[in-house]
């Protein structure tokens, strides 16, 4: 049984038909046209389809007597798989600008890729590719037909960007605009409108502007707008991650995360969860849990592991072990899928189909040290991020270990290790702090040349700390500059320190066998607390985030005292030194001008020193409780009062003379 297909070419000055009536009218005009020799495009089409699908097409080219402006061919419909050869024939016709007309069904398959009677036909190949799991082909096909204005393709692109399917990252604004443009029946219009109505008014106005741009863009320009808008979000996140390492731009960089996360960027949402904890004066664990949930629902595997841990530890909400187990299982399943996919790719690319990847150790999990939780989420949550490799979390832990904050003791060796991890990733202030540690020998060996190189590197990276005159001698310039070059190589800083014997006297953060409160390699692999096994530590306190907060002007505990005694030559003026000077001056003036007995003078001497020391400690320990800060503030006022009294006595003495 043979099916007849009529082939014809539209004159260049005729518009492409958009309805069946227009297509029928154009075909009839072409068929009634003058007799001409066979169109060479007909011959080219016939040779191509016979070569690709032999036996399916019934084609007679004939000779000079073939002068009809349209040309009829047959396709063998007795074969069960004749659909693919027909699709291939239509594709070749599109390349040549030819139209196929099926008189039996009355459907026109136009040379611009449209089928006015059945607009979903062009995207059937994309639908089949999607069903077969070939997302790349499906996405490419939908893009090709969307550029031609096919509503089914536009709607499919919108759905893919809305739900993150076909291997695409979400972009909610584009998704809503494309779905509204491509809605082609009652069901799709209802879905598109419902999705659009869930946006706030500001976002709806933004989507309408975007939709107007898309509608006015012909062909490839529409795809260019889609690609540019998607790239803008990806670039904003990448720029934020890089800019945040430049400490002077930390707040500006962090502010770019939330708009990207609101568009469905799962990495931005994951980073925003950390930002709401360590980037503000008062952490908001509930907000962190919200963004972590969004990232987990958007299929970000690290976010699934962290979200499980949040349920397990009660960070930002109630403890729910069932939810924790659910998200742990989802993360493990996704991780296994990724490993199998990578292994299959390696086997396909390797000689003989054998994977060249190293085999995983069977005892990997058994060698892991358990986690010791501090019970303070402000340390434990950033600790999780730091072991995932986040430099800002590592810097946060470095300051915590340096000053003994958030439920942990002072641990200079561990602080040095955290600073080294963050500095290796490019964090400017961590680079500076690591330089102060190596200059003074805090937490490990000292090396003045390496410290100077780190100070130079921190300055070029944009540290908020002041880098004073380093006093580099002429003979040191060459070695120091060579050290800067070596230290700034990506992923090489800790190796250079190790080679020079300057590594911290603890295992690298996230490695096996660390000191107390350090997680072993399974932490970096992403297991929750139940997988690691708890070895003590109080339950986390339920956080009470403030309804309105102000972002800190410091960069994660970048107090002005962080480098108070390590800048340049080892000294810089700050509030503690001023208070100490005022206290000493008060005592001297009291001893010189006040006449009561020695016991009173000695008491004022002691109180002045205590008050000066209290003010100095207040300048260094901003994490003290409000009561403790109030007490030392009152003590700090005593030398100031004494100064006023003594100045008055001094003035009276001069007047008396």
Description:
The protein is mainly α and 657 residues long. The protein has helices at 20-31, 40-52, 83-96, 124-131, 135-146, 151-163, 172-182, 186-197, 201-215, 220-245, 250-255, 257-262, 266-278, 285-297, 301-313, 321-349, 377-387, 391-403, 412-424, 428-440, 448-461, 477-487, 493-499, 521-525, 529-532, 575-593, 598-620, 626-656; strands spanning 2-9, 57-58, 71-76, 98-102, 107-109. The protein has a five-stranded antiparallel beta sheet with strand order 2-3-1-4-5, with helices on both faces. It is elongated and about 135 Å long.
* Relative helix content: 55-70%
Structural class: mainly alpha
Number of helices: 28
**Amino-to-carboxy terminus distance:** 131 Å
Q: In this structure, how is the largest beta sheet organized?
A: 5 strands, antiparallel
Radius of gyration: 36 Å
User: Spans of 5+ residues with little confidence (pLDDT < 50)?
Assistant: 360-369, 510-574
Labels describing this entry:
5 strands; mainly alpha; 657 residues; 28 helices; single chain; five-stranded antiparallel β-sheet
């Amino acid at each position: 049984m043979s099916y007849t297909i009529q082939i014809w070419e539209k004159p260049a000055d005729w518009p492409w038909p958009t309805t069946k009536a227009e297509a029928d009218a154009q075909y009839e005009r072409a068929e009634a046209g003058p007799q001409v020799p066979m169109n060479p495009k007909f011959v080219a089409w016939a040779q191509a389809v016979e070569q690709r699908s032999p036996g399916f097409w019934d084609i007679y080219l004939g000779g000079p007597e073939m002068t009809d402006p349209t040309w009829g061919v047959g396709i063998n419909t007795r074969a069960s798989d004749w659909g693919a050869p027909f699709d291939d024939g239509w594709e070749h016709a599109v390349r040549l600008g030819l139209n196929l007309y099926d008189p039996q069904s009355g459907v026109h398959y136009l040379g611009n890729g449209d089928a006015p009677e059945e607009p979903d036909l062009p995207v059937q190949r994309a639908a089949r590719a999607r069903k077969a799991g070939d997302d790349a082909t499906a996405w490419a096909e939908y893009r090709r037909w969307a550029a031609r204005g096919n509503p089914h393709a536009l709607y499919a692109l919108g759905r893919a960007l809305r739900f993150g399917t076909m291997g695409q990252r979400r972009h909610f604004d584009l998704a809503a605009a494309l779905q509204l443009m491509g809605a082609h029946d009652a069901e799709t219009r209802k879905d598109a409108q419902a999705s659009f109505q869930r946006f706030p008014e500001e976002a709806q106005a933004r989507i309408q502007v975007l939709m107007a741009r898309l509608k006015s863009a012909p062909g490839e320009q529409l795809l260019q707008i889609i690609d540019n808008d998607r790239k803008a979000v990806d670039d904003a996140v990448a720029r934020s991650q890089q800019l945040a390492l430049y400490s002077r731009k930390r707040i500006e960089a962090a502010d770019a995360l939330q708009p990207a996360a609101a568009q469905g960027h799962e990495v931005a949402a994951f980073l925003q969860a950390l930002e709401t904890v360590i980037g503000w004066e008062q952490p908001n664990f509930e907000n962190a849990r919200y963004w972590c949930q969004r990232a987990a629902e958007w299929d970000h595997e690290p976010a699934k592991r962290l979200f499980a841990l949040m349920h397990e530890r009660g960070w930002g909400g109630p403890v729910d072990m069932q939810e924790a187990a659910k998200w742990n299982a989802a993360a493990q399943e996704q991780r296994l899928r990724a490993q199998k996919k990578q292994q299959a790719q390696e086997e396909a690319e390797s000689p003989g189909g054998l994977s060249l990847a190293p085999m995983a150790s069977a005892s990997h999990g058994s060698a892991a040290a358990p986690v010791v939780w501090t019970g303070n989420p402000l340390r434990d949550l950033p600790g999780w991020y730091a072991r995932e490799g986040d430099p800002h979390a590592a810097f946060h832990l470095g300051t915590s270990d340096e000053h003994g904050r958030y439920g942990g003791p002072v641990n200079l060796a561990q602080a040095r290790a955290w600073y080294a991890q963050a500095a290796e990733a490019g964090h400017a202030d961590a680079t500076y702090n690591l330089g102060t540690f190596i200059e003074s020998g805090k937490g490990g060996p000292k090396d003045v040349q390496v410290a100077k190189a780190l100070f130079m590197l921190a300055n070029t990276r944009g540290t908020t700390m002041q880098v004073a005159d380093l006093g580099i001698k002429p003979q040191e310039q060459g070695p120091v500059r060579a050290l800067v070059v070596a230290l700034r190589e990506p992923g090489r800083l800790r190796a250079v320190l190790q080679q020079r014997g300057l590594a911290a006297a603890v295992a690298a953060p996230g490695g096996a066998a660390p000191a107390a409160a350090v997680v072993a390699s399974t932490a970096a692999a992403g297991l929750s607390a139940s997988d690691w096994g708890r070895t003590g530590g109080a339950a986390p306190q339920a956080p009470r985030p403030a309804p309105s907060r102000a972002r800190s002007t410091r960069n994660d505990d970048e107090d002005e005292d962080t480098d108070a005694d390590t800048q340049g030559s080892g000294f810089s003026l700050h509030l503690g030194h001023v208070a100490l000077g005022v206290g000493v001056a008060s005592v001297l003036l009291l001893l010189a001008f006040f006449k009561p007995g020695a016991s009173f003078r000695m008491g004022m001497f002691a109180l002045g020193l205590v008050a000066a020391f209290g003010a100095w400690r207040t300048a260094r320990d901003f994490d003290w409780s409000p009561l403790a800060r109030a007490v030392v503030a009152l003590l700090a006022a005593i030398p100031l009062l004494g100064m006023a009294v003594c100045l008055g006595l001094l003035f009276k003495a001069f007047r008396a003379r």
